[in-house]
Amino acid sequence: MALTLIVANLRSGGGRARDALPLVTNALRRAGREYDLIVTPNADETASLLATALRSGEQDVAQVVALGGDGTINGAVNGLVSSGADIPLGIVACGTGNETVRSLGLPKNTRTAIQTLLRGRVCPIDVGVVNGRYFLNTFGLGADVEVVKMTNMLRSRYRFARNRSVYYVAALMLLSSGFEPFRVDVEADDRSFGGRALMIAVANGRIYGERLLALPSPSLTDGLLDVYLLQELATRRFRKTARLLRRLPVPELSVQRCSQVTIHLDQRREAQVDGSLAGAASSFSLSLLPARISVIHPTPPALVATPVFSTVPAGSLAGRA
Fold first, then answer.
1. What is the rounded CA–CA span in Å between residue 194 and residue 151?
2. How many CA atoms lie less than 13 Å away from 250 in the CB half-sphere?
3. What pTM was computed for the model?
4. Beta strand 3-8 pairing with 61-68
5. Where are the alpha helices (DSSP H) in 129-281?
6. DSSP 3-state assignment of 172?
7. From CA 90, how far away is CA 41, in angstroms rounded?
8. What whole-number distance in Å separates Cα of residue 255 and Cα of residue 253?
9. 190 Cβ contact partners less than 8 Å away, ≥ 6 residues apart
10. What are the C-alpha distances in Å from 266 to residues 12, 31, 149, 182, 281?
11. How distant, in Å, are the alpha carbons of 18, 207, 210, 244, 307 from that of 241?
């Protein structure tokens, strides 16, 4: 009998994954489904451990279940794609932000997520790729990376940082404190930008939510990426930062939809992928793999729900400065 392969980071969400694991395994057992478990020491190890297990071919795997936060989900996606396996991915969210789950429209409640695993529908979705690493939701540079670092610091020091409000706090602290802009050249299909920027975000998913803003044209199934470029804030930095956090337009923010993006930087800079730090480089090449993996969704799937609209203007990348 084909089994469910669970990859779990038990530290996710301050121990939420550890509490959720017996609920998942008991539900599978009651449903007469066999399962195996891979406990990952951290999100970074998830990809290699899962890929190794799938490549071995020792088990007949019917589905993979990621039990953890955004980093664990990203690792599961990388493990699935790099192994070449065509196996559905189920998700039980146990992280702090859970932005990937919100982007996918999956249930955040553990018991509801388990029912989705048992009775849901398989839906193909696009996968982004940057310098050989895969992502479902977002890639970011500049202030975006510093928000991730600040969020990690706040989580380690303060109990309040266990919920999503920590992203708002980190973004407000950073952008209002005078983050230094950097020189960048961006090619997004036939559009280009050359100048100084505070942040670049390239999104596949429909939520780029708690850290800064929501996408104006949400879709994980359209074969396109959304590029956000925030130029240097010339005046009234604090007020404009507050507008961004409220998802209101500022003239320094531009948006471009495209299928490929190339980013050249003035020096090596660290990036983030799906909320996890992803190493430094001086250039990044991004593209999309349409319908590359399948995710287990509620029935009917939330991906075909009414689109979410945003007040952020969908302006194009400008010319070179």
1. 29
2. 24
3. 0.84
4. parallel
5. 143-157, 165-175, 237-245
6. helix
7. 20
8. 7
9. none
10. 35, 55, 21, 7, 10
11. 37, 19, 14, 5, 26
189: left (phi over 0), alpha (psi -120 to 50) or beta: left
Residue ranges of the alpha helices (H) in the chain?
A: 16-30, 43-56, 70-83, 99-104, 110-119, 143-157, 165-175, 237-245
CA 105 to chain centre: 13
Share in percent of the chain as helix, strand, coil (round to 5) = 30, 35, 35
Residue with tokens 């799906």: 274
Residue located via tokens 């429909």: 206
Q: Using the 8-state DSSP alphabet, how is residue 12 labeled?
A: G
Return the structure tokens found at 50.
Answer: 């899962």
DSSP 177: T
Amino acid, single-letter form, for residue 245: L
pLDDT string in tens for the chain (321-residue length)? 689 999 999 988 778 899 999 999 999 999 999 999 999 988 789 999 999 999 988 889 999 999 999 999 999 999 999 999 999 999 999 987 788 888 888 998 999 999 999 999 999 999 999 999 999 999 999 887 877 777 666 666 655 555 555 555 666 666 666 678 899 999 999 889 989 998 898 988 865 544 444 445 557 888 889 888 888 766 555 555 555 555 555 656 777 889 999 999 999 999 999 988 888 999 999 999 999 999 999 876 666 433 333 333 444 565 554
Q: What residue type is 151 in one-letter code?
A: T
Cis amide bond preceding 300, omega within 30: yes
